[in-house]
Specification:
CATH topology of the largest domain: Aspartate Aminotransferase, domain 2
Strand order of the largest sheet: 2-10-9-8-5-3-4
Helix content: 40-55%
CATH superfamily of the largest domain: Type I PLP-dependent aspartate aminotransferase-like (Major domain)
Number of domains: 2
Shape: globular
Strand content: 15-25%
Oligomer: single chain
CATH architecture of the largest domain: 3-Layer(aba) Sandwich
Structural class: alpha/beta
Number of strands: 14
Number of helices: 14
Mean pLDDT: 97
């Protein structure tokens, strides 16, 4: 039976048809006036998504490249960071610190627990730090930390000049993220999440406070990710090295869609779809994983007797739907479904309905329609 392929993984996410068509066009040379004009327009749109007046640098690479660039450029070996580790990706940024000789203390939280300003204030009262590094929306656990309160806690501490370095890979462009207003110093994201592109581009922005730290860092061991080179090139509307220019051109299409909907509209749509999905899961008797669920991605416990292999395998084989499993300590225990980017209300209903059918097939006692009805009640807010 014909079944359209539906991608619900939290990266890569679905890409709009208009963006895919842009990628199908002939390749253009990037060292031209036309490219510089387009790149300037994209810069303005990225600043809008980030809610910042600062430059947003475009790197050809994954989100990990942007995270490494943000951490290593702004922190020199011997400086000390507080790394909030509450998921697989948060743990990765602590490893980056270790790799480059940045001293750090890990504030270890259980998977599914969100970081708060109170936690950070307590740590800063006990020791001096040059930065706090955290994941705003931890993709592996579908948990969102209270970034605004964390920024306030750092500024109110005895180290108010400490940098707030944020992995916003599944928050920027999906849920409220206000770089300038909240006082975020380094913010990173990737193309394959809320920005509705294939993987291949990464983005990083620095506050004036963070850029001062970059300029003071005389022990940088990066070459490709030396942000001073990016700053020099972007002054001429360019990149220091060959960019993935076809992706950059397609990015312009996706960013235009975001601006037309407005970033506030995107936040509302994502939030409503996420709440609808969660209510759908609760409506069929399932249990949510995170203690503070993110709106960009949801995590749900498997019912007893349902295996990850059978569940996700049946979804893909029977319904042509691809979702994600758990990571790290939650592997095999939860499944994760994306709500960010090119996702609408009917994608949500399709996800809920297919999960009902799959659980029924695997022997779980679910009433068909119970989850869908619960989700529809929430989605009515959008219409």
């Amino acid at each position: 039976m014909l079944m359209k392929y539906r991608l619900y993984t939290p990266g890569p996410t679905s890409v709009p048809e208009a963006t895919l068509l842009e990628l199908a066009k002939p390749v253009h040379h990037h060292r031209t006036g036309e490219f510089r004009t387009m790149f300037a327009e994209i810069q303005s749109a990225l600043q809008y998504v980030y809610q910042t007046k600062q430059t947003v640098y475009t790197i050809t690479g994954s989100g990990t490249a942007a995270a490494e660039a943000g951490i290593v450029n702004s922190l020199a070996p011997g400086q000390k960071a507080l790394c909030i580790t509450n998921g697989k990706f948060a743990e990765r940024w602590a490893k980056v610190c270790s790799q480059f000789g940045i001293e750090h203390k890990d504030l270890k939280l259980e998977y599914g627990v969100a970081a708060t300003g109170e936690m950070v204030a307590k740590e800063f009262a006990a020791a001096k730090y040059d930065a706090v590094i955290l994941v705003h929306s931890e993709t592996s656990t579908a948990t969102v930390s209270d970034l605004e309160s964390i920024c306030k806690a750092v500024r109110a501490s005895s180290s108010p000049e400490a940098l707030v370095i944020v992995d916003g890979i599944t928050s920027i462009g999906a849920i409220p993220f206000k770089m300038d207003e909240w006082g975020v110093d380094v913010a990173i994201t990737g193309s394959q999440k809320a920005l509705m592109l294939p993987p291949g581009l990464a983005f990083v922005a620095f506050s004036p406070r963070a850029w001062k730290a970059v300029e003071a860092n005389k022990n940088l061991r990066e070459f490709y990710l030396d942000m001073k080179a990016y700053a020099k090139s972007i002054a001429d509307g360019d990149t220091p090295y060959t960019p993935a220019n076809t992706l950059i051109e397609a990015l312009g299409v996706s960013l235009k869609m975001i601006k037309e909907e407005t970033i506030e509209g995107v936040w509302k749509r994502t939030s409503t779809i996420a709440e609808a999905f969660r209510q759908g899961m609760l409506g069929m008797g399932l249990k949510l994983f995170s203690q503070r669920p993110a709106d960009s991605v949801s995590a749900v416990y498997y019912p007893e007797g349902i295996s990850d292999k059978d569940f996700r395998g049946t979804l893909k084989k029977t319904h042509n739907i691809h979702i994600a499993g758990g990571q790290g300590t939650m592997e095999g225990k939860i499944f994760r479904v994306n709500h960010m980017g090119y996702t609408d209300a009917y994608d949500c209903l399709a996800a809920v309905a297919s999960i009902e059918f799959t659980l029924k097939k695997l022997g779980y006692n679910v009433q068909i329609g119970s989850g869908v009805a619960a989700a529809q009640k929430v989605l009515a807010k959008l219409f």
